[in-house]
Amino acid sequence: MPWVFLIIAGFLEVIWAVAMKASQGFTRCTPTLIMIGAIIGSFGLLALAMRSLPLGTAYMIWTGIGAVGAFMAGVWFLGETLTIQRAIAAILIVSGMVTMKLS
């Protein structure tokens, strides 16, 4: 169950990052409220996952899902450019997450 909590926490991190962008500097109410709810959920589930998982593993997976997920959301939904360098960076982050999980 801690891995389920961790993965959901990572996806909530992506949601709050996208909502923060959509809030336009906290000037839009609905995205700001979504962001606050997603932050609370993300941190809460991360805390639950850390009851059983090592700190380094949990934190790296959580931030990795957030970083790669926010990158992908930016490309798919916000029209951000996909360059070979950005793709390689995302692949390296995922590679580090997999290595951390296997170690």
From TrEMBL:
<keyword id="KW-1133">Transmembrane helix</keyword>
<dbReference type="GO" id="GO:1990961">
    <property type="term" value="P:xenobiotic detoxification by transmembrane export across the plasma membrane"/>
</dbReference>
<dbReference type="GO" id="GO:0005886">
    <property type="term" value="C:plasma membrane"/>
</dbReference>
<keyword id="KW-0813">Transport</keyword>
<feature type="transmembrane region" description="Helical">
    <location>
        <begin position="57"/>
        <end position="78"/>
    </location>
</feature>
<keyword id="KW-0812">Transmembrane</keyword>
<protein>
    <recommendedName>
        <fullName>Guanidinium exporter</fullName>
    </recommendedName>
</protein>
<dbReference type="InterPro" id="IPR045324">
    <property type="entry name" value="Small_multidrug_res"/>
</dbReference>
<comment type="similarity">
    <text>Belongs to the drug/metabolite transporter (DMT) superfamily. Small multidrug resistance (SMR) (TC 2.A.7.1) family. Gdx/SugE subfamily.</text>
</comment>
<feature type="transmembrane region" description="Helical">
    <location>
        <begin position="33"/>
        <end position="50"/>
    </location>
</feature>
<dbReference type="InterPro" id="IPR037185">
    <property type="entry name" value="EmrE-like"/>
</dbReference>
<keyword id="KW-0472">Membrane</keyword>
<dbReference type="GO" id="GO:0022857">
    <property type="term" value="F:transmembrane transporter activity"/>
</dbReference>
<keyword id="KW-1003">Cell membrane</keyword>
<dbReference type="Pfam" id="PF00893">
    <property type="entry name" value="Multi_Drug_Res"/>
</dbReference>
<dbReference type="InterPro" id="IPR000390">
    <property type="entry name" value="Small_drug/metabolite_transptr"/>
</dbReference>
